[in-house]
Write the structure tokens for this entry.
Amino acid sequence: MTTARYFERLKMMLLQLEFVDEVIVREELITDDFGYLCLRFTLSNGDIVELFEYVVKEQNAIRTVNYSFHLQDANAVLLKRWDNAPHHPELESFPHHLHHGKEVLPPRPMNSFAFLAFLKRHFREGRRSG
């Protein structure tokens, strides 16, 4: 898979989600060997998502290098944020961590597709209204 195809698939999947109202591409750079995408989108319940992912192509696979997937409510209150900024070395999953309210938890490493799968579950489980 190419980095261009990876991000094309991501954008297509995002646009097919019925609970996504508006998508803004804040920054994007895609080359043959790497790419990054920074998006901001609003969900139908007023929640706001900031998505950033930097990937590299290694042989025929895409590997996520850096990411931040931020979900907040319409009042700018953090609901969850997954990222791999190296500032929680005490976690077994370092540098990967999840901000859940005021807690910092050790999650699995994430990518954009896993995050969109979370958003689908998030809406299916009842976070349809702010």
Strands lie at 20-30, 34-43, 48-58, 61-72, 78-83, 97-100, 103-105.
